[in-house]
């Protein structure tokens, strides 16, 4: 295949719909009493077993999409109510802890039941104890911390404008407050202000480059705007945070392909078939085929086309893939 334009366009559209859904908390169905659950999360530090307050707690779908968000209260607890029956994970993150993701949680049905409790133990990072190795404890000014807590409470109640005001005040009081910028960005998403979200996430990433949600959002933003060089470092972080996400690994592979890094694209695209929900990202086989183009490996390319057609026979790309496959077959 001489051009990856069609594959890129299709993948960009697929990523737009899937990743955008991951950025927006899904509206949970109230269903029936047998079809919903309450998930209670309790977070504590591994080092001293004390509760971990004010950390970000995210409820994730099995493919890594964010279903809902909470901020842990003063007791290190967060509660997700009216959760539709299914399988979920919980991810906990914050500026002074290592991002931690739980194993799969069964909610509702005969296994999970109506009430689920998940205890998560997190580790403090070095930055949680010292400021960038300088030996000085990181102290958030009282005024900034107060505004952050008020913003978190408003965020949990979905009072987005109020939360925005408090998080903005927190960043003014403490311009190095990565968590406040991170939460401000998430509020901007809820307020449909994409530009504001990008600016806030950029500020957060400059302070703490490891923030999972900031990396995913910025990777998506630059990818959708075809700024592949800018997108790549954020997507590399996201793939490291969610190595089992076929969606993120596929989009990273395509980004590397667009940046002319065919060996990296090939390696990542080949990983996808071993990941959960791989068939939903059958386009990874086309990325492999494109990366192999011009290397005298027509037999391997043909196999990738055949696998794609098997996994996605009704895809709009199927007719073109069949044509390309026919060109590789002996006359």
Radius of gyration: 22 Å
Which architecture of the largest domain per CATH?
Alpha Horseshoe
Helix content range of the residues, please? 40-55%
Contiguous uncertain segments of 5+ residues: 1-10, 12-33, 127-137
Q: What global shape is seen? A: elongated
Q: Largest sheet at a glance? A: 5 strands, antiparallel
CATH T-level fold name of the largest domain: Serine Threonine Protein Phosphatase 5, Tetratricopeptide repeat
Distance between the termini: 18 Å
How many DSSP H or I helices? 14
* CATH class descriptor of the largest domain: Mainly Alpha
Give the overall pLDDT as a whole number. Answer: 81
CATH superfamily of the largest domain: Tetratricopeptide repeat domain
